[in-house]
């Protein structure tokens, strides 16, 4: 993505996502649903032996494995990764604490509202584009998908030459593992919510 960062700390690596709490969390949720290891293995498609190793914190599962387990346990991935035995996970950021990215032309502003611990596989932004603004991005990891929902105004999405006009209330999803450009060709400001699912989050 051809952007420059303004404010905020540098992004942390995805290796910090998996913590020692994960095994306890999976086990606690499994027991709360009265599921045996075999039951959870059948519902998630994850081998019983792998689940057992995860619960004993003997292995670091891939994010795809965590995703399958979270789906089987009816929990979001973020809640599974953030859960602890002691208290609910609550984090609040002020407007001043929210990192901002600007496009090369300075006319497109991305507020990073996603959780920094998931940045290696899940990114989401509040996007504001002034008239004439353009966000030109190189391709992300192969297999990655981006979802753009326009909240106000109209945006144009160009994915490797295929162009879609997206109006207020509309959503467009597209492979973002190739050059893609988001433009505001209108005379009015536009705003959108953008989610990028990188390779690790897209199951083949």
UniProtKB/TrEMBL annotation:
Swiss-Prot/TrEMBL keywords: DNA-binding, Transcription, Transcription regulation
Domain named HTH cro/C1-type: residues: 26-80
PROSITE patterns: HTH_CROC1 (PS50943)
Superkingdom of this protein's organism: Bacteria
Gene Ontology CC annotations of this record: cytosol
UniProt keyword Glycoprotein, yes or no: no
InterPro entries named in the record: Cro/C1-type_HTH, Cupin_2, Lambda_DNA-bd_dom_sf, RmlC-like_jellyroll, RmlC_Cupin_sf, TransReg_Diox_bact_type
UniProt GO molecular function: DNA binding; DNA-binding transcription factor activity
Keyword field contains Transcription regulation: yes
SMART domains: HTH_XRE
The protein's name: Transcriptional regulator
Provenance organism: Xanthobacter flavus
């Amino acid at each position: 993505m051809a952007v420059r960062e303004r404010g905020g700390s540098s992004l942390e690596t995805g290796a910090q996502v998996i913590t020692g709490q994960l095994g306890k969390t999976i086990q606690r949720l499994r027991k709360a649903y009265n599921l045996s290891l075999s039951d959870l293995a059948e519902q998630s498609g994850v081998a019983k032996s792998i689940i057992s190793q995860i619960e004993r914190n003997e292995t670091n599962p891939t994010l795809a494995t965590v995703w399958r387990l979270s789906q089987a346990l009816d929990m979001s991935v973020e809640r599974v990764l953030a859960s602890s035995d002691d208290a609910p996970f609550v984090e609040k950021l002020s407007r001043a604490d929210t990192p901002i990215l600007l496009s090369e032309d300075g006319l497109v502003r991305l507020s990073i509202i996603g959780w920094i611990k998931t940045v290696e596989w899940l990114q989401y932004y509040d996007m504001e584009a002034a008239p004439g603004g353009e966000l030109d991005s190189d391709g992300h990891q192969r297999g990655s998908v981006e979802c753009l929902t326009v909240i106000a105004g109209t945006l144009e999405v160009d994915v490797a030459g295929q162009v879609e006009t997206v109006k207020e209330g509309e959503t467009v999803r597209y492979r973002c593992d190739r050059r893609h450009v988001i433009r505001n060709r209108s005379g009015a400001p536009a705003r959108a919510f953008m989610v990028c699912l990188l390779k690790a989050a897209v199951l083949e």
